[in-house]
Structure formats: structure tokens, C-alpha cells
Amino acid sequence: MKKILILGAGLVAKPLVRYLLDQPDFEVEVASRTVSKAVKLIDNHPQGKASELNLKNEEGLKDEISKADLVISMVPYTFHPIVAKYCIYYKKAMVTTSYVSEVMKNLDAEAKKAGILILNEVGLDPGIDHMEAMRIIHEVEEKGGEILSFTSYCGGLPAPEANTNPFGYKFSWSPTGVLLAGKNSAQYLKDGQQIFIPSQDLFDNFLTINIEGLGEFEGYPNRNSLPYIELYGIKSTKTILRGTLRNKGWCSTIKKIVDLGFLEEEEKDWTGLTYKDFLKKLMNNPAEEDIKKALSTHLNIEESSDIIQRFEWLGLLSDEPLPSEKNSPLNILGAKMLEKLQYEEGERDMIMLQHQFIASYPGDKKEKITSTLIDFGIPHGDTSMARTVGLPAAISTKLILEGKIEKTGVHIPVTPEIYIPILQELKELDIAFKEKKEEM
């Protein structure tokens, strides 16, 4: 029996854990700071074990890793390099769904020397997006073609019938993670020109993106797209942009949230303040009694605007006392949004991932290729976010332990031996793309 150690028991862990417990030759241990979450995930399965583990307890972490055959790290990305170093020391394979940080990249030589694979970015975005992109790129290249343009947008949103609040959003993962994305700058290539967008201007730079069958959404650029020219091997491309999808109104609202300083992470003392007082402090306008008037003036928008209405609906203009005296604006906002932007029992979430390529072939032939994944959560069951993040990680874990992926070093899923079997099995699990080709 192969032993798998899963670190973390968060919102997307359930399909991952269940898939691996369903394999006859695996034992699965879920280690979490909150052991009750791990116990719930294991659900008395005879091949499962739940344990309490604080990642700051390095001796405990080392002990757990030493006893495993493979480690899946589903904890915040800042902990991955610590886990990876112990995996290298004990020569244990490792899987994560997070972006590869510079620190992780720098472990490549050590991982190769230890003869282990550290497979990152094997979730949804990053993950499934890489796999489908490479499948199409390699198919174009096999026909003698090259890529001239590549744009990709991904979003996790409420299904249309569950889109019931003014923000057009509900949380299927960490609210802090969603909000912190608003502090990222962005870079991409458009018609051969490099575009840089500083973080404060990110939400002023969105486009309207149409997803067939679902309508129009806002798409804004996600981090730095330029490295993917080399990662995907498409040096011929004149355009590359990877972006995030949200419902209409999200970008203008989050822009004002950024402008107000809600994403500040420094803790301050807010003793005795209400949400309205807190908002006045952020605006440096403690005297103005009419909070709507003060806010509309400060943000240079109409009092009747949708943005003010969203702030009011969220409770940021209310006389309700703040939940704790010392906290950061980011955590105060995150807690309030998590409280208000929740999925009701039985509601579905939705994942949309759309790639668009323009490919050029010999003989002046051009083709537009659109590949779209639309997936819905299961009412009273797994969210689509949990399935699309957790299942690719689970499938890749199985393939590694079965010896079907033989790479060593630090990798992402861009080679056929990794992406072909994962995409095939995802299709069998009803997570599949629809492809459309049009001659240009």
C-alpha cells in the first residue's frame, strides 16, 4: 500500500481525498491544524487517517513526511517551499495546485538530485488551463502550424440561478485570496507590444468577454502572462493574455474598494467603531454625518450608483459594531464578504474556462480555435471549484505513484505524458472542454 499525506483540509480538499480513498492500493492521511476538518473528510474510511498538525511544528511535519510515499500540499503557498525541502530530504514526491514561486523554482536541481518530482500548478487555474492549452498547441504544431494569438480567461462564479446578490459573486474558496488578487499588477502581450498595468489600475482594464450559452462577463488580466510564451513554447505569438472572469459590475466595485484602502494588511486598533465609523476613517473624513454623501464625493460617483448600493448591501455603511477591535482592513472586509456572499444550501457554483487561439498554417491558412470548459457544482454535493482543483491533483498523484509520470525536478503539467492521461480521466468524470474551429 502506498501512503499519501495530504496537508490541509480546506474548501477544495473533499473530492481529492475521496478520489484517492477510492483507489484500492492507497492509504490516505489528512493532516490539518483543525483536526475536526480532517476527521470529516476521512469520514471513517478504513484506508484513511486524520491527524492534527501545525505546520510550524517542524519536527511533526518532518515525521509525517518521512512516513509518506507522496505529499500533497493544499496549505497556503508560502508553506510549500518548507514542505518541499523535507520532501527532497526524505526523497518523497510532492504535488501542489499553487503557482510555482521563485523559491520553488530554485529547488529544481535539488529535486532532480534526490530523484523526485515536485509537480505544481495541477489544479484548475493554474492546472487544467495549462493542459488544454498545450493539447491544442501541440495539435497545431503537429499540423505544421504556429500560434499567432492566445487568450485565456477563467472564473469561478455562482451558477445563473444562484446569482442572487449585487456583487454577482459567492465564495467557494478563501475570501482573502480573492481580494488579494486585486493587489497584483499585470503584464501581457498585445499585437507584439508588451503592456504593463500597475495594481492600482488593474480593475480599470477589463474587457467584455462572451461565453457561448452564458452571456457576457468582465475579463481582467491575471498577473504576468509573458512567461507563458516560453513555458508553452509559442515564441511565434504576437498576443498572449491570461485573465480572470467576473460578473458585470465587479471590476468597477473592486476598483473603489482598492482606492479606499480596504486591501491594506496592517492591523490597527478600531476599538468602539462601527462599520460606518471605519469607512469614515478610511476616507479620512470623520466629521461628515451623511455617509452616502461622503462616500460618493470621495469616490467621485453618484450617490445612487450601483457601487454605493453594493457597499450599503454589504453593511459597510451601517451602525453595526466591528467584530474585533484590532484587525486589518483586508480581514474586516473579507469577514464581512464571507458572511454575506455565501452559497445557500443546495446552490450550485460554476466554473468557466475559455481558451482562444489564432493559428497560422502553410498556404496562408488561418484558424480561430475556441475551447471552452463550463462545469457546474453538484447541488448538496461538491462544488465545481473543489472538483476542478482537487481532481487533477488526485489523478496526477495516482499517475506518479503508479510510475506513469517519470519526471524529476520541479514541473508544471505542460508535457503530454502528464496532461494527456489527466485530461482523459477528467473527461470520464464529466469535466470536459468543447472545441470550436473557424477558418479566418
What would your notes on this structure say?
By secondary structure, the protein is an alpha/beta fold. It has 3 domains: 2-119, 3-Layer(aba) Sandwich (Rossmann fold), CATH 3.40.50; 128-250 and 345-384 and 433-439, Dihydrodipicolinate Reductase, domain 2, CATH 3.30.360; 253-340, Orthogonal Bundle (Domain 3, Saccharopine reductase), CATH 1.10.1870. It is 35% helix and 25% strand. The protein has 16 helices and 18 strands. The chain has helices at residues 13-21, 35-42, 58-66, 80-90, 102-105, 108-114, 128-142, 175-180, 227-231, 250-260, 275-283, 291-299, 306-314, 329-340, 384-401, 416-428, and strands spanning 2-7, 26-32, 48-52, 70-73, 93-96, 117-119, 146-158, 186-190, 193-197, 207-211, 215-221, 239-246, 268-269, 326-327, 349-361, 365-376, 409-411, 433-439. Strand 15 (349-361) and strand 16 form a beta hairpin. The radius of gyration is 23 Å and the shape is globular. The termini are far apart.
In short:
The chain is an alpha/beta fold and 440 residues long.
Helix and strand layout, with pairings?
Layout: E1 2-7, H1 13-21, E2 26-32, H2 35-42, E3 48-52, H3 58-66, E4 70-73, H4 80-90, E5 93-96, H5 102-105, H6 108-114, E6 117-119, H7 128-142, E7 146-158, H8 175-180, E8 186-190, E9 193-197, E10 207-211, E11 215-221, H9 227-231, E12 239-246, H10 250-260, E13 268-269, H11 275-283, H12 291-299, H13 306-314, E14 326-327, H14 329-340, E15 349-361, E16 365-376, H15 384-401, E17 409-411, H16 416-428, E18 433-439
Parallel strand pairs: 1-2, 1-4, 2-3, 4-5, 5-6, 6-17, 7-12
Antiparallel strand pairs: 7-15, 8-9, 10-11, 11-12, 13-14, 15-16, 16-18
Helix pairs in contact: 1-15, 3-4, 7-16, 11-12, 15-16
